[in-house]
């Protein structure tokens, strides 16, 4: 379509057949949408429909089948030309489906004009991936990864003309190691089919590779890491699928495939975890010590149980009611606008995350003037904890639809540090139950939550036995030990659950890297009334 005088974007308007009737179909580039409306008087007309061009998956010339051809007596004599538009149909609870509508006309030239105009507009959607590298963990979750990909995802990728290189992993770390070897730069994105653990592996491969190629030493806890612009797509096929659920709003392979196809982009905060100047892991969802660390440790022995292992180990861990003594030092996240007790959650286009993005861009501009983190204020807390959870995002998942910290942000450069102090079993149960209902899980005297940009933890046991985490920690923690010499603490350490992987060290140093990576997602969309307007009146209902 050519530009109109005055730079206005053109409209293509035609009367096209849809089912048995003629509809007024408009391709409105200005408003970025394809719309079709029944031109009959309002009382007799069907409802109007529209699809944003950004949510059209593909357009194809179509041969009308026998049923579709039986659309009117006179048309039987004439050759009909048709095209089908495949588009995203939004259903309830953030679920997306691929729907289609077929338009016909007798004029071959008009039909081709429509196909060409739509294809040109799709070509202009520059954020859409053309080539993807896919890793499938055949053993994640209920071991359905390969079937899910082949039956639900691959046909959609092919419909959208996305070419793929597929690797079915043969062992743990296969995907991660592979990402250090292949030419990642020829891909528009990497897709992982599996759970949080599989995502973590792919993220480590990709983020690690970018640091290596940029000459960044990951072992330096103070290093400014280089942002990874190759997006990761998650096709959920794991046990918890918390990262997918927290960034899309549902754990559903078809929905995730469609977010990849339309080229969504959601930046994500990533925490680096170090011990004694040695890089341990990155975390994007949960870093949990105590309750969640113990669940993970126990559940790893029961992998054969599949996703049920978390319920079994969760119940066992709850009954054991272990608490752990240690010291936490954290730097509050003063740069962010939000607080963990906010009523509003992070949603698509979140202004708090946008603000952090602007701050990050400014920091990159004048990196020389950046504040030294060591100079900023540290707060220290010592105590006996049932759980210490640091979350970079809400950690919503099917088990806990609002998550461990409902107001946490995906891309604000901070984590919510949740400290659950020693309390009775009954109180801890009340706390856990609030993860599953609308009540405020932070409204307990034994629960504290802080928005932080970095923190350190050392257990009482390692304070006593090991050399300390780092010099700054040595001074701070040492001071507390002298102040409170003897206390009756639990004598064993827990382990850290880092996005579903156990860490070897209990003494850790954690730093949040604002928007270090990007996902094929758009955050959780607000449930808006408009949503139903174009989704529920899909053309097939009218045929
Ligand atoms: N072929 C393989 N054989 C064994 N382990 C694998 C293989 N491929 C990947 N893995 C490892 O399996 C671990 C768990 O996988 P994944 O996250 O997909 O499933 P899950 O643990 O059931 O789900 P979730 O992490 O959501 O709880 C990952 O950490 C990954 O490193
Ligand atoms: C008696 C009612 C108890 C209900 C407790 C519900 C709380 C569930 C919250 C789960 C949040 C999980 C956060 C995500 C962690 C993942 O990184 C990890 C790997 O998939 N999963 C687990 C379970 O550690
Ligand atoms: Ca965050």
From TrEMBL:
Q: Which InterPro entries match?
A: ATP-NAD_kinase_N, CERK_C, CERK_PH, Diacylglycerol_kinase_cat_dom, Lipid_Phosphate_FormReg, NAD/diacylglycerol_kinase_sf, PH-like_dom_sf
Highest taxon listed in the record's lineage = Eukaryota
What Gene Ontology terms describe what this protein does at the molecular function level? ceramide kinase activity
Quick check: keyword Cytoplasm in the entry? no
Q: Does the keyword Kinase apply?
A: yes
Q: What region holds the DAGKc domain? A: 127-277
What processes does the entry annotate via GO biological process terms?
Answer: ceramide metabolic process
List, alphabetically, the Pfam families matched.
CERK_C (PF19280), DAGK_cat (PF00781), PH_CERK (PF25382)
Single GO cellular component annotation?
membrane
Xref: PROSITE patterns? DAGK
Q: Which UniProt keywords apply?
A: Kinase, Transferase
Q: What is this protein called?
A: Ceramide kinase isoform X2
Q: Which organism is it from?
A: Pipra filicauda
- Tell me the lineage of the source organism: Eukaryota, Metazoa, Chordata, Craniata, Vertebrata
Q: Point out the gene that encodes the protein.
A: CERK
């Amino acid at each position: 379509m050519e530009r109109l005088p005055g730079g206005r974007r053109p409209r293509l308007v035609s009367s096209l057949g849809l089912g048995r009737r003629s509809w007024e179909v408009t391709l409105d580039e200005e408003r970025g949408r394809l719309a079709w409306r029944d031109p009959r008087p309002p009382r007799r007309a069907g409802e109007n429909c529209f699809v944003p061009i950004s949510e059209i998956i593909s357009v194809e010339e179509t041969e009308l089948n026998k049923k579709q051809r039986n659309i009117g007596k006179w048309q039987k004599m004439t050759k009909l030309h048709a095209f089908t538009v495949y588009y995203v149909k939004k259903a309830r609870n953030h679920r997306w489906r691929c729907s289609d509508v077929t338009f016909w006309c007798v004029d071959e030239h008009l039909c081709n004009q429509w196909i060409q105009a739509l294809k040109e507009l799709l070509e202009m959607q520059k954020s859409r991936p053309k080539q993807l590298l896919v890793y499938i963990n055949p053993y994640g979750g209920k071991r359905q990864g390969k079937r899910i990909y082949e039956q639900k995802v691959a046909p959609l990728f092919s419909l959208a003309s996305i070419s793929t290189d597929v690797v079915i992993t043969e062992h743990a770390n296969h995907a991660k190691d592979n990402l250090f070897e292949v030419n990642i730069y020829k891909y528009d994105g990497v897709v992982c089919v599996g759970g949080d653990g599989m995502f973590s592996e792919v993220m480590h491969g990709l983020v690690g590779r970018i640091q290596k190629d940029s000459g960044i030493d990951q072992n330096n806890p103070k290093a400014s890491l280089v942002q990874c612009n190759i997006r990761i797509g998650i096709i959920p096929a794991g046990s918890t699928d918390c990262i997918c659920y927290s960034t899309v709003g549902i754990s559903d392979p078809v929905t995730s495939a469609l977010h990849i196809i339309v080229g969504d982009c959601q930046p994500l905060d990533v925490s680096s975890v170090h011990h004694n100047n040695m890089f341990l892991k990155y975390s994007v969802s949960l870093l949990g010590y105590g309750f969640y660390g113990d669940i993970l440790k126990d559940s790893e022995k029961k992998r054969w149980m599949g996703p049920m292992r978390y319920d079994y180990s969760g119940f066992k861990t709850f009954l054991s009611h272990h608490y752990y003594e240690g010291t936490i030092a954290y730097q509050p996240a003063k740069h962010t606008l939000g607080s963990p007790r906010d009523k509003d959650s992070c949603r698509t286009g979140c202004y708090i995350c946008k603000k952090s993005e602007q701050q990050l861009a400014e920091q990159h501009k004048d990196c020389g003037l950046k504040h030294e983190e060591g100079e900023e204020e540290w707060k220290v807390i010592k105590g006996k904890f049932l759980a210490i959870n640091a979350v970079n995002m809400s950690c919503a998942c099917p088990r806990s639809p609002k998550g461990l910290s409902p107001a946490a942000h995906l891309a604000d450069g901070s984590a919510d540090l949740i400290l659950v102090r020693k309390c009775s079993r009954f109180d801890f149960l009340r706390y856990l139950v609030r993860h599953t209902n609308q009540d405020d899980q932070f409204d307990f005297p034994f629960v504290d939550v802080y928005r932080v940009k970095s923190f350190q933890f050392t257990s009482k046991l390692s304070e006593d036995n090991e050399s300390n985490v780092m010099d700054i920690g040595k001074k701070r923690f040492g001071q507390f030990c002298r102040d409170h010499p003897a206390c009756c603490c639990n004598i064993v350490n827990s382990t850290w659950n880092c996005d579903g992987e156990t860490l070897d060290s209990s003494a850790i140093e954690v730093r949040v890297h604002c928007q270090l990576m990007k996902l094929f997602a758009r955050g959780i969309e607000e449930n808006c009334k408009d949503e139903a307007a174009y989704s529920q009146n899909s053309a097939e209902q009218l045929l």
